[in-house]
Amino acid sequence: MTSGRSWCACTGVTLVELCVVMAVIGLLSLAAIVYLSAGDTRLRSAVANLKFDLEQARQEAVKRNTTVAVAFSKDLDDVDCNNDGLRNSNDSCYVLYEDRDGAYVHLRVVQIEPSIDIQTQTIVFRRDGTSTSSTVTLASEVRNENCPVDAPCLKTWYDVTTNHIGRISISEPQQQCATCTE
To answer: What CATH number matches the domain at 19-178, 3.60.20.10, 2.40.128.600, 3.55.40.10, 3.40.50.2300?
Structure first.
């Protein structure tokens, strides 16, 4: 006599097992997002701070009726950015300084995280608020699985531009897969 039910020796996953796997995948995804966004957050913060300091340098030039410049550590031989007694690749900063009749007086030294690469030239603000036209590029990179094997890092950069009338602007972020520098 059969009751109409068929019994099979089927194996499968229970709802609890499925929920545990989904939770683990969610936690790993969250950790990856936090890790990847941390580098971008530091870069965006450095760009915003630089723009603020450039605006402050312009205001100081007008207020003091003199020339105020912003020079970057790659252009400076006499600045030990991190005060370790050495001038090396760990020194990453920019200096706001005032020109007092040919003598340069440091107004402020601002450290930049060594993982952020800076490509620039010295920016000069004149007493009338005008400036040299220049572009400062701040960049960082992180390893990224979506980039090809021969260029495994995702490089992100922003251009901070000053024009001849002293206006300061920030570009949209640019991204490109590149060979890792570290």
So the answer is: 3.55.40.10
